[in-house]
Amino acid sequence: MTINATNKAALSRLPQAQQLVERSWQRSREYGLNKHSRMDPFCLPISDVKHKKQQHALLLGYLNSSLPLFEQLQQGRRCRLLFADTQGTILFSAGDPYFGNQAQKIALANGASWHEQSMGTNAIGTALSEQQEVSILGQQHFLAANHGISCSASPVLSPSGELLGVIDISSDMGEHAQDMLLTARLMALAVENALVMNQHHAHWILNLAPDAGSLQQPWSGIIALREDGQLLGANRSARHWLNELDIPAMLAQLQQGQLTPVKQGIALLSRQAGSRIARSVADNAPAQCPRESTALKLMARQIPLLVQGETGTGKDHLVRRLHQASARAAGPLVAVNCGALPSELLEAELFGYVSGAFTGSHKQGRPGYIRAANHGILFLDEIGELPLAAQTRLLRVLQEKAVTPLGCHEPQAVDFQLIAASHKDLADMVEQGTFRQDLYFRINGFTLQLPSLREYEEQDFTRLLERLLTELAAKEAFLSKISIDEEAVHRLRSYHWPGNIRQLKQQLEVAIVLAEGQSINVTHLPELPQMSDLQPRTRDLKSLTDQLVVQTLNENNGNVSAAARQLNMSRTTIYARLKALGKH
Ligand SMILES: Nc1ncnc2c1ncn2[C@@H]1O[C@H](COP(=O)(O)OP(=O)(O)OP(=O)(O)O)[C@@H](O)[C@H]1O
């Protein structure tokens, strides 16, 4: 393509987006296209499309897993999501099948090519030629036949930074919204991140984020390394920093501590790809949850998990780690707090509904949380709060692996891993008739019982404390370490922590502020009633817990359920303590 000097000077005076369109129109003319040419997309034979799809199988799989993100962001708008390879050939097409006229339907189907050479200026072809994201709206298309549509496309890059194709969102011109370009970009980021994280031979996955809370965000940096530190790939954000990073030094640092300031504004958090479990702030002491690897194996077979534990013991935290470590990491994690949804909305939000299903419903219907979790994990927190009618409906979904949205008679197939959690003893609720027994058996393929802080062994408590301090240090203007003296650790260890890790974390946050950069000591801690105040004869936590258990059981005439309720412990924990005491 040639642009003569006069054209060049005229072009440089236009706003950037317009310059880009102008360059593309010039190319279109040079390809010999005429504005009034028929829109006659070149369509590849099916066997070639199949071959191309195989070449991009991994990418297409991740794109498919990210569909709930698209559905959530576009919420039933009439548009299509497309992926086209570097030749502009559409290999993936999802979304509203009814939009566009007949010719456009053919042109937006798998196998059709949107390269500028055959279609002139259009978002797919132009994003490929320019290697940047672009929206082409209505009449900005070179061919008049395409003036009725608007499209936004964002390039997808491989872990080594090569162009793999583009993700495009197309709609009728009048229905195109500005945020469609953003959605295309987010979808591209989600796919690129999954490609980096799931590289063969990746041993280390390094996350670069301003703080622990941003670790999961699609815009945080991700780098994949071999065991010897050789770079395998990086996502977009991390690629910007690659030249500034001293990877061997970072790896050496990681082996000592797990969260290290890299430069102003960027902290490094490590994950080991072998286990694919976050090893930094997201690390539970192994002794707290010895059956976690079993949980991952069961998840690989889609066996539902039940996480039980008092409030603040880290149920939600654990589920997020399991998600990251599982084969569904590239899929969504949809967390629903069943206790927080108003009962009149719960079924609609969970199971979804079709247009006009009930008065006040969203015009275009909603997919619902269950379908949003397709190819990912549905985390039903506080499942004990589900009303009986919703329990029945959920049971049917689990049995049939299909969900029937409200107002619809057609079940829709859905594939998700269920993880449920509750701080209530569900077995107890079954006994009381407030939770369906058949649902209890369905959701409880395997129970992960999280201990309360009272039950932590000393070394686990210390390890958790160190981890929380490291995590909080990262938030505090990148203090690399916050220390705490022995007396203060002892004071913290002796408190009974009804709010568990959440409460401990809050107290540490306060202490860090009061310590003003110095080592934390008892003067920085609030007055915490010590467990020793409850029982002066012993400071041994286990025997204190045992004593409480026995005492409470006696008060409740040996009724384990009643004692469990009173102590806010699970019945399993009570039985375990009784067994240890030789009383069961
Ligand atoms: N192993 C851990 N390491 C570091 N922080 C943790 C760990 N487990 C939990 N936390 C932190 O403790 C707090 C409470 O955790 P989480 O919300 O997962 O508890 P929960 O059991 O789901 O509570 P609830 O039942 O009240 O919803 C969060 O801030 C979380 O980040």
UniProtKB/TrEMBL annotation:
Q: Which organism is it from?
A: Oceanisphaera marina
Q: Output the superkingdom of the source species.
A: Bacteria
Q: Which SMART domains match?
A: AAA
A Pfam family recorded for this sequence:
Sigma54_activat
Which keywords, in A-to-Z order, does the entry hold? ATP-binding, DNA-binding, Nucleotide-binding, Transcription, Transcription regulation
Domain called Sigma-54 factor interaction: residue spans: 281-513
Record carries keyword Nucleotide-binding: yes
Annotated protein name in UniProt: Sigma-54-dependent Fis family transcriptional regulator
Q: Does the keyword Transcription apply?
A: yes
Cross-referenced InterPro entries: AAA+_ATPase, AAA_lid_NorR, GAF, GAF-like_dom_sf, Homeodomain-like_sf, HTH_Fis, P-loop_NTPase, Sigma_54_int
Transmembrane residue ranges: none
